[in-house]
């Protein structure tokens, strides 16, 4: 009987780990969206074309000094974040 209880405790611990991992992914995705939206707002506010994010020097800088891969390509930023940023700015 003790073995069954030990195995059950092990499964519960494993499930907690998976659950907390999923929560962390969700939080990471939220932060990713916030960062990309802020980046789009910053670039558009400064009249910098979003396509500049794919320039080799800019990409190298971002990859080495900011979280690697946090910023999507300029086409993804344009399609995913620009419309939302535009609508928010238009409301203000």
Automatic annotation (TrEMBL):
The keyword RNA-binding does not apply. Signal peptide: none annotated. It comes from the Eukaryota. Residues 15-25 have a biased composition (Polar residues). Residues 1-29 are annotated as: Disordered. InterPro entries: Cggbp1. One of its GO terms (molecular function) is double-stranded DNA binding. One of its GO terms (biological process) is regulation of transcription by RNA polymerase II. Keywords: Receptor. GO terms for cellular component: nucleus. Coiled coil: none annotated. PANTHER family: U1-TYPE DOMAIN-CONTAINING PROTEIN. This is Membrane progestin receptor beta. It comes from Platysternon megacephalum. The lineage of its organism: Eukaryota, Metazoa, Chordata, Craniata, Vertebrata.
